[in-house]
Amino acid sequence: MRVRACLLALVAAIEAAACTPKVSPKPVSYDEELGAKPAPAPVDELAMERVVAPPGKGLRTGTIARDRLIAVLDAGPGMFLRQLEVTARLSGERFVGWQLVQLVDRGSPLYDVDLVPGDVLLAINGKPLSRPDQLQTVWDSLRTANAVSAQLWRGQTKLTLEFTVEPPVSPLPSPVAPAR
């Protein structure tokens, strides 16, 4: 009986200690007392000097067969864009480029190219792709392009993917004025 009484007293003491208010040994500090911390200076991603990214997992240069390129172009931008997931990359409120979230189709030719999630596509053949009409203009220009060049950012670095298109398209000869 005595042991039981001691155990009950011990349990009651523990419960009483658990129910008492907790007091912090440190004094309370309020935000106003801590002093204002200066906000970090915003980084202008567009003006930042970037070094060339080290080589990645895939190709940065190579050759694209013109018949395969034409087949992709004939299928349209929608079919091509199903191979990847992208999101708009902004600097402040200004559009910078398209950030790769993931390659959806592992059987896609893009899987062999040096692209990783987080890469930001800035331009194709020097032309931006921020609006649908710009995408269509670039898309149409690829039919007669002899090269496809993609300018990208990878973190704090930059990289360019350069692919030649074979066979090349000969430029149209300029019209010759008739002799008089």
TL;DR?
Helix content is 26%, strand content 28%. By secondary structure, the chain is an alpha+beta fold.
Describe this protein's structure.
Helix content is 26%, strand content 28%. It is globular, with a radius of gyration of 31 Å. Strand 7 and strand 8 form a beta hairpin. Strands 1, 2, 3, 4, 5, 6, 7 and 8 form an 8-stranded mixed β-sheet that branches. 8% of the residues are buried. It starts with a helix and ends in a 14-residue tail after the last strand. It has a domain of 116 residues: Pdz3 Domain. It has 5 helices and 8 strands. About 4% of the residues have low confidence. It is α+β, with helices and mostly antiparallel strands and 180 residues long.
Give me the secondary-structure topology.
Blueprint: H1 2-19, H2 31-34, E1 51-52, E2 61-65, H3 66-75, H4 77-81, E3 84-91, E4 94-103, E5 120-124, E6 127-128, H5 132-141, E7 147-154, E8 157-166
Parallel strand pairs: 1-8, 2-8
Antiparallel strand pairs: 3-4, 4-5, 5-6, 5-7, 7-8
The DSSP helix count reads 5
Q: Tell me about the biggest sheet?
A: 8 strands, mixed
Task: Provide the helix percentage.
Answer: 25-40%
Mean pLDDT: 81
The second-level CATH architecture of the domain at 51-166 is Roll
Distance between the termini: 132 Å
CATH fold group of the domain at 51-166: Pdz3 Domain
Radius of gyration: 31 Å
Please identify the top-level CATH class of the domain at 51-166: Mainly Beta
Contiguous runs where pLDDT drops below 50 for at least 5 residues:
16-22
Principal-axes geometry comes out as: globular
CATH H-level superfamily title of the domain at 51-166: PDZ domain
- The structural class is alpha+beta
Number of strands: 8
The fraction of residues assigned to DSSP E strands is: 25-35%
SSE ordering: HHEEHHEEEEHEE
